[in-house]
Specification:
Blueprint (H helix, E strand, L loop, with lengths): L1 H31 L3 H15 L3 E3 L5 E6 L4 E6 L2 E4 L6
Antiparallel strand pairs: 1-4, 2-3
Length: 89
């Protein structure tokens, strides 16, 4: 009876891990599936905020979402022309 109980616990643990992994994959997929308009809005907001502190080349700015099996990363390539020593705030 003890062996049967151990086997059931192991199977439950394996099922739990599989379910957690599936949920994680669904969440990663949901996070990376955003509309192009939302990504463009995010890019515009980033440019607006960073422009308070630096002069940047907004025409060459690139913002992307990248994902792998474990995470989602927001990547931004923002060419800096000049750093404003005094904030315009």
């Amino acid at each position: 009876m003890d062996l049967f109980s151990k086997l059931l616990k192991r199977e439950a643990s394996l099922s739990k891990n599989v379910a957690k992994e599936r949920l994680r994959l669904v969440l990663v997929h949901d996070r990376t599936t955003i509309s192009p308009q939302l990504l463009e809005n995010l890019k515009e907001d980033l440019i607006k905020v960073i422009s308070n502190y630096m002069e940047i080349d907004s025409g060459e700015t690139e913002v992307t979402l990248n994902s792998d099996d474990n995470s989602v990363a927001l990547s931004a390539s923002i060419p800096v022309i000049k750093i404003n020593r005094l904030s315009s705030r």
